[in-house]
Inverse folding.
């Protein structure tokens, strides 16, 4: 289950992983990442197992899974083929929310003093690899709290190096190069919009290949497309949120459809800048709602 | 000036247009739309001059300018060449905020009883044309309040047709087809992200043409591109928000850059899926920050 689970609110504490498992917040008893490449990551646990982690409360730099010996040392490179890491890539590409648990073992100031605490929903806003502290490749995922996710409290005094004993340096992120802080930066997070269930179904039918230009954007760890409403939701258009009103498109064709640079004929001919340019690719299970096609075209009749 | 003006908060009332002009909220004394195609729309006034307008408080369906006689009847088609309408298209394409004033003349339940009220920032989330009530083409822009814009109060009892005398039908939007309402629908609003000043400068240098694939997305009323940070802002990447760290890209190349499907060499060769694929197009005033290029490439070294 992606998103909030019933009867659990941000801030709720669990004395053991088994209780968090029982509540459905984080189902595995050992793994830090719950999820698959197909579904995305349901939940993660921040519990100090990876020394490259950084925790700023609203922002977490979370190290992927793998490459460790039994004593939490990196002894080999991590890979995006790891199912947990692949799940976090899918969460990024699909804009899906990830439940975050913090555990007492973490030396983050935001960790609970004992047990585990559910801290609400975050989204993956970027990722990449670097040489970790132990000299092997680690993948790291930047997670940002949603605007309506409560900021976790500083629950414990962290062990600070002597040069950083001011309490004010704990609760707020450290300053980087004097004028930049790793706080929530909305300009990086809105590019990829959460896919609804309807959109995900259409994108799965077309395997992320654009129905107009046939492009499938391949990126390390996955592929990317967008679910695009033919006739926009909301007044004055009032398009329905149904698979018949959604297309699987690359971002470029999505922009052009939304702004009327592309319209469709009733026979699904693609009209680009006033001229016929191929036909919309379809799929046996994906029946296009021609009323939506007609209304969208009508909006751009000029 | 785009966005909030100093010393004016949402909810502030002005007894005349001249006072709203003096405060910088809406500068023209007569025109309903303030702005140009180049800058976008600074502000609009919702004051009942166009009978096709719809006002749901958080959502406004705003009719463009033009085509009227002296008595507010449409007597000819509207055009996107009208500077005010073109300004609203730019606001849509750039994701820019628009100040909204409501005037007493509007028969919207959200209009003030007298004078004018500044109601905060909205964004244009879709647009299109239709045959208006008077039988001529009108362009309409859907504006949605930002999440932190206060919802305007219902200030006057509207004149309702007899079939709709329940007060509850006034404050909330009417139901459409039994299950869809024209309320704020976030899935439609986040596709286009507000361009910062830094991004707008880079996009202007390149005239919205992608520096990687050379595409310029043309739509009715304008063209579209995105400002893309080479090295992402925020921890762990900490890229600077400077023109040297921003590229003008089409949405597809933006997705690929962000997810490491495209990286750049120090000589600005474009590496796509591991193979050289042309060179980044540059501009004399646009000096790329090679440290950002290097750090971004490092993230995807694998």
């Amino acid at each position: 289950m992606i998103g909030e689970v019933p009867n659990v609110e941000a801030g709720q504490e669990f004395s053991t992983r088994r209780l968090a498992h029982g509540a459905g917040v984080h189902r595995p008893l050992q793994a830090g990442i719950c999820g698959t490449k197909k579904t995305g990551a349901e939940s993660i646990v921040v519990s100090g197992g990876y020394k490259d982690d950084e925790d700023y409360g609203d922002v977490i730099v979370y190290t992927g899974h793998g490459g460790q010996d039994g004593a939490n040392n990196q002894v080999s490179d991590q890979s995006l083929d790891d199912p947990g890491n692949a799940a976090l890539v899918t969460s990024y590409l699909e804009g899906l929310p990830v439940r975050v648990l913090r555990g007492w073992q973490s030396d983050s100031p935001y960790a609970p003093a004992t047990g585990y605490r559910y801290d609400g929903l975050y989204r993956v806003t970027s990722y990449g690899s670097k040489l970790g502290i132990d000299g092997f490749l680690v993948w790291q995922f930047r997670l940002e709290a949603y605007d309506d996710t409560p900021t976790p409290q500083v629950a414990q005094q962290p062990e600070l190096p002597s040069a950083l004993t001011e309490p004010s340096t704990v609760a707020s992120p450290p300053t980087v190069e004097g004028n930049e802080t790793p706080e929530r930066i909305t300009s990086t997070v809105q590019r990829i919009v959460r896919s609804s269930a309807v959109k995900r179904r259409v994108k799965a039918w077309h395997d992320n290949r654009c129905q107009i230009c046939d492009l499938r954007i391949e990126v390390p760890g996955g592929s990317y497309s967008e679910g695009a409403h033919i006739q926009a939701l909301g007044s004055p258009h009032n398009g329905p949120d149904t698979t018949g009103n959604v297309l699987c498109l690359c971002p470029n064709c999505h922009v052009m459809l939304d702004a009327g640079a592309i319209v469709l004929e009733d026979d699904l001919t693609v009209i680009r800048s006033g001229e016929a340019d191929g036909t919309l690719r379809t799929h046996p299970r994906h029946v296009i709602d021609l009323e939506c096609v007609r209304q969208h075209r009508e909006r751009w009749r000029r």
Remarks:
- Residues 48 and 107 of chain A are 6 Å apart (CA to CA).
- The radius of gyration of chain A is 22 Å.
- Chain A touches chain B through 65 residues (CB under 8 Å).
